[in-house]
Amino acid sequence: MRPDPSATDEPARAVGLWRELTSVYDQLEHALSTQAWDTLGTLAHRISTIERQLEPLSTRGTTQPRDPAAAPLWQEADAHARALADRFPRIERTARTARDAAAAQLAKARIGRSRTDTYAATAPLSPRFTSQRA
Fold this sequence. Notes:
- The protein is an all-alpha fold.
- The protein is 71% helix and 0% strand.
- Helix 1 (9-33) packs antiparallel against helix 2 and helix 1 (9-33) runs parallel beside helix 3 (71-116).
């Protein structure tokens, strides 16, 4: 008896989504390290979308008995999940470093702006007498 091909559809989809999520986290980490702020919103939205798609697959794979034909795919999906979870501390450090760099840039800009209020006139004014008696 041949295994039911539909039994491997869900775990194959889960593996594909985990791979895609890993790829998006790679892009996120790169964007943080290069301070490409304009791409972060798009990446965060994509991560959220993939996680929503993964949620029913993740719970289904753990609550229902797994088909023996699908077991290797579920194991691969689990391995991708563990690998990504292991990367989170490094990604968090990268995000904190990027945040600190952005804060330093903003502080430098604020200090520069506050100093512009105290600049003196560039050319000294010559004294003028307004009285005709002097």
